[in-house]
Specification:
The chain is an alpha+beta fold. It is built from 5 helices and 12 strands.
């Protein structure tokens, strides 16, 4: 997965879909071009194991960051955690044990690689075929600055792409189905094999659809639903 996604749902709609009434004390604007280090919504269990919506910045801050500059630099390198190695990487392994979350998204963007059938760097938009929100598996953590400020941050877990998505990119976000949300959000310690089993299930892309979009999404200055509008590719933009 590359580093952009969209969330066009209102906070009340997110709360309804993820079955929670606990919401943050501020709202984030609708955004069709969410970028790393930006504040995003996450769904998690609080200390009483009650499901809540919270806000954190995208990109997990390394626990050993010494100052704000180090923190932001580490975030930009930790927006995604690979499902195959999240349990062993120093930046991610502590959060993976008991601070797991879901990141709601309307869809995400991916750029074609030379391994697929499309022209390299052609952007695509991927969403559910029933218009429901995607639930990216994620992990979150807290970091305290030298000045005492507490910053919460989050990373999205990715896996190998499957099905037709392989023709676009070799990775995709791990989108968890609703029947796995409760177990994934549980803060109680879990065995590694249990967590691996939660991340492995048949047909992980069964509800996903995708289409090519304009290169407007390439610039973080651009925003709006037109970024996800489908376009038709010419023959020179598809490899045979």
């Amino acid at each position: 997965m590359c580093g952009r996604f969209a969330l066009s749902a209102m906070l009340t709609d997110i709360a309804e879909e993820f079955s929670t009434n606990a919401q943050p004390d501020r709202t984030l604007p609708v955004d069709w071009n969410i970028k790393p280090t930006q504040d995003i919504y996450l769904v998690r269990n609080d200390l009483q194991d009650t499901r809540e919506i919270a806000i954190a910045s995208w990109g997990l801050i390394a626990p050993w960051s010494k100052n704000s500059i180090d923190a932001q630099r580490s975030q930009s390198m930790a927006i995604n955690a690979r499902s195959e190695s999240v349990h062993e990487k120093p930046t991610f392994r502590r959060a993976f044990k008991r601070q797991r979350c879901l990141v709601p998204a309307s869809g995400y963007y991916e750029w074609a690689t030379s391994l697929g059938q499309y022209k390299t760097k052609q952007p695509f938009y991927i969403s559910r075929d029933d218009n429901k929100l995607l639930a990216f598996a994620g992990i979150y953590d807290q970091w305290r600055s030298p000045e005492g400020e507490i910053r919460e941050s989050v990373a999205i877990i990715t896996r190998d792409a499957v099905g037709d998505l392989e023709g676009v990119h070799n990775r995709m976000p791990l989108c968890l189905p609703p029947d796995r949300w409760e177990s994934w959000l549980d803060r109680k310690p879990a065995e590694l094999e249990e967590l691996r089993a939660l991340m492995a299930f048949p047909h992980p892309a069964v509800h996903l659809r995708f289409w090519p979009v304009k290169s407007l999404v390439n610039s973080i200055r651009n925003n709006g639903p037109e970024l996800a509008a489908p376009i038709t590719l010419g023959e020179t933009e598809v490899l045979f």
